[in-house]
């Protein structure tokens, strides 16, 4: 697997558990135990997901005495969003042309 930031971001986002963890962290910091609560998996499994997210730069872990809160880091998500936006206009243009072609074909069938 390529080791660039965009590839790490998309690889981390490919898993629904990790996306759910990010959605929870979008509401604010949380501990591993808090993040693990809604999932039917071990703390070790949740920790593995957190390591993937951390390697991708999508989360960071702080330290406040015994409390190690996880927090969302938005920069990699912004990078992924920028990459998607570059292609969005191309996709939109192609879909618009396809829609026009479908309408032209349908109009031709209605006349025939």
From TrEMBL:
Alphabetized CDD domains for the sequence: HTH_ARSR
One Pfam family here: HTH_20
GO molecular function, a single term: DNA-binding transcription factor activity
Stated name of the protein: Winged helix-turn-helix transcriptional regulator
InterPro entries to which the protein is assigned, alphabetical: ArsR-like_HTH, HTH_ArsR_DNA-bd_dom, WH-like_DNA-bd_sf, WH_DNA-bd_sf
PANTHER family, alphabetized: SLL0088 PROTEIN (PTHR38600:SF2), TRANSCRIPTIONAL REGULATORY PROTEIN (PTHR38600)
Stretches assigned to the HTH arsR-type domain: 1-92
NCBIfam families membership: HTH_metalloreg
